[in-house]
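Sync notes, pocket subgroup
Present: LS, DG
LS reminded everyone that the earlier model was apo-only. Rerun requested with nicotinamide-adenine-dinucleotide included. Inputs:
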Amino acid sequence: MTLRGKTALVTGSTSGVGLGVAHALAAEGANIMLNGFGDAEVIRGIQRDLASQYGVDVDYDDVDLMHVDGPGTLVEATHSRFGSLDVLVNNAGIQHVAPVETFPTAKWDAIIALNLTAVFLGMRAAIPIMKGQGWGRIINIASAHGLVASSHKVAYVAAKHGVVGATKVAAIEVANDNITVNAICPGWVLTPLVEQQLEERARTTGADIAEESNALLAEKQPMLQFTSPDAIGTLAVYLCSDAARTVTGSPISIDGGWVAQ
Ligand code: NAD
């Protein structure tokens, strides 16, 4: 177990990619601070499962990261609860799909606040703690949309390109502090965020969800399969390993060939 005794904060970990990453880090022995929204009983169940499956300490904080003081508060709460903060995974994110000419300002503001500003604020709060400890790993969950664009996703694509840029800047600044900063750029992952898009498409076209899943994959990925949240968790564990100590400032694709084209 490579992370026994270390503390990992995974934002947006009540669902999807974040939950997969929390499982993978806990399986390596990390104590986990969960964050995100959802049914209180379901979240208590996630806490219990992680703690009993992996023998780690698990807490949960429901702070809203869209508020400007949210990420700093969450980093501080994690540090004071566990006594350290070794791994920060900035994962919480939302989506809205509409053409630029009708894209609502409120949706733009919300996506930039959560998908980009919260990543910056989380890193800003975590870096001094990690420097003080002499070790740290920051993993920002960007997207294939951090590297290339798709229509109707102006705020998301802008935010994710921003995350890749911010990752590189932070990586350079802490390059000799035993801290690495990387961005994971997934292609399609079957999570509630994508299920929503599939339902929307199925409503519009009248096709069923299975047909829409195939169509969605075929539009972007040479490989016609979804990446699993567990696979992203495994990649996060690798980035925390000693073997990855010189991997920094990198946008790492896990996308079925999406950006290879
Ligand atoms: P999801 O909807 O399953 O999970 C999002 C998580 O963020 C949930 O835990 C939710 O409660 C939390 N969250 C939402 N608003 C929040 C807020 N204001 N404050 C705190 N937490 C909040 O989505 P997902 O697909 O697992 O996405 C996770 C990350 O992965 C996102 O950054 C997304 O952009 C990225 N990503 C997803 C895919 C994909 O295909 N699903 C592909 C590339 C990148």
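DG: Strands lie at 7-10, 31-35, 58-61, 87-90, 136-141, 179-186, 251-254.
LS: The chain has a mean pLDDT of 97.
Action: DG to write up.
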